[in-house]
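Lecture notes, part 5. Sequence design as translation. It can be helpful to think of inverse folding as translation between two languages: the language of shapes and the language of residues. The source text, in structure tokens, appears below.
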């Protein structure tokens, strides 16, 4: 019998808005998301591995940064 197992990353959106992109240097739309690694059996996610990692992605250039970049824009 063949047994397929492994890990896969899944990204889920937390929020969205506008921020000053560090790469574009312009106000841009962003997606705030959490990426978690899941163990899977036969391509069905079974349980998460770890707590996940949050990131902010610019929808124009695709650059990803830590969520702290959102706070830096508000402190200016």
């Amino acid at each position: 019998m063949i047994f397929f197992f492994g890990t896969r990353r899944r990204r889920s959106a937390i929020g969205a808005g506008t921020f000053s992109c560090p790469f574009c240097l312009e106000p841009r739309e962003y997606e705030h998301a959490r990426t978690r690694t899941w163990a899977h059996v036969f391509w069905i996610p079974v349980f998460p591995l770890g707590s996940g990692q949050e990131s902010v992605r610019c929808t124009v250039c695709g650059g990803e940064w830590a969520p702290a970049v959102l706070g830096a824009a508000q402190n200016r």
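The translated text above is only one of many valid answers, since several sequences can fold into similar shapes. DSSP finds one helix and four strands in the chain.
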